[in-house]
Each structure stands twice: as C-alpha cells, then as structure tokens.
Amino acid sequence: MKILAGNWKMNTSFEEGYNLIETLKAELSPERLGDVVVVIAPPSIQLTQAVDLLVDYPELAVAAQNGHAGDYGAFTGEVSMAQLADAGADAVIIGHSERRQFFGESDSVVNKKVLSALEQELRPIVCVGEVLEVRKAGKHLSAVKEQLRLALEGVSGDLAENLVIAYEPVWAIGTGETATAAQAQEMHAHLRGLLRELYGDLADHLPIVYGGSCKPSNAAELFAQADVNGGLIGGASLVAADFIALADLLHKS
Ligand code: PGA
C-alpha cells in the first residue's frame, strides 16, 4: 500500500479546508489514484467537516493530527482517540516532531497513544526522526530505530498490520531542506529491519512514508526508493495542485 498523507497542521479556515477537499474530490478519482491511499489531516476542529465531505470517497481517508491516550476524563483541551473514532476519523498522526518538541511528548506518551489508537481501530501514523545534532554525530540510525522500538512497545503482531510509519528528519521539516533519496532509503530500510525483527514478513507490507519538505520537485526520486512507500506532506499539502501532483508521482512510482 502506498500512502500520501497531508498534514495541514494549524492552518486552514473552514472555507479553505472545504475548498481543498472539494478540489481533491474532483481530481483524485480511484482510477487516478490506483494503489495510492490519500489521507487528509485537517485541524481537529475541522475533522467532522472533512469526514462529512468525504463520506462517499473511501479512497480519501481522514486523520487527526493528535489524540489523547485516555478514553474520557478530566483532561481540559484534549480529544481522545475514542472521540476521534466516534467523529469518523480513520487514522491519527502520533508523535509528530512538533508534538515532541513543542508539547513535550515523550516516547512513553507516544507509545500510549499508539496503543490507544489501535484499540480504537484508528490507523496510527507513527512519526519518528532525528534532530540535526544526532545526524551530525552519526547516531541517526540507532537513535531513530530506538525511537520506533519504544513507540511500538506492546503492539502485538495482529494489531501491527494497521501501522503506518513516517520517517521525518526534524532538520528537514518546514525548512526547505530535504533528506536525499539515499538518506531516506537508508533510514527506511533500517526501520524496516526493526519491523521485521518485531513482526516478521508483515514488515514488507507496512508502509514507511517520508516527510520533510517533500514536494513535486523532489518527490519522484524519494518515491522511487524501494523502502519509501509514500509521503507525509506538510506545506505542499495546502496547495491542491502540489498535493495532486504528489499523488500522481506516487502512483507512477
Ligand atoms: P513539511 O512538513 O512538508 O512542511 O516539511 C512535513 C511534516 O511535518 O509532516
């Protein structure tokens, strides 16, 4: 399975979100998408708008950008995985580097969220990636593998089939800096090795997507890599023409 996920982050008004989705619906027919699954992650307040607009478009899935690991309770300002599932979300982005960096999400919190999402039958898009200092020190492969191992602690083989992994080098997110195709492939192959350790042959079927300044001008080379099964797209997902071009490139890869 190939996945193209658009992470709108804290952008879009209701009207902008509506227009983006209507354009994607008009352009991205099942024939055009082929084996590509598109996932749209609007701000949580616009989640139900997206779910309602896409009710007859199963090839366009809806994800939340975050969720709380508890089901219900006194957690002012939070939205639980149970509530996201109840709202009609199909997936949830977990452990995005902005959550880790600005909201203090630890590996253990990320792990609890992954387990909760799976319990609620939401497809977790589990984000991992190294900061620049770690890459410069040459420790990126071991550091990111460990991050993923901790995120997946307690995820059993039968639940694992719903996982999507996103490798997002922090130094490439929103910076215009992209990992080279070779850097992405090296990391993705390394992470698939961990998935094989944990889940055997299932590893070959779990999508590992790349994120970090991925755009139409650099995506063809990234998507051509054997272990790159799609993209988690920030900035370019807000421009319908770019996101559609990325879907076409992924389809052709
Ligand atoms: P970017 O964001 O494409 O704007 O770099 C990617 C992400 O954070 O998911």
Structural features:
single chain; alpha/beta; 8-stranded parallel beta barrel; binds 2-phosphoglycolic acid
Provide a compact summary of the structure.
This protein is α/β, with parallel strands linked by helices and 253 residues long. The protein has 12 helices and 8 strands.
Description of the molecule:
- It is a single chain.
- With 253 residues, the chain is of the alpha/beta class.
- It is built from twelve helices and eight strands.
- An eight-stranded parallel barrel has the order 1-2-3-4-5-6-7-8, surrounded by six helices.
- The longest helix is centred in the last third of the chain and has 19 residues, at 181-199.
- The radius of gyration is 17 Å and the shape is globular.
- The protein binds 2-phosphoglycolic acid (PGA).
- The site of 2-phosphoglycolic acid has 13 residues, from strand 8.
- 2-phosphoglycolic acid binds at residues 7, 168, 173-174, 211-214, 232-236.
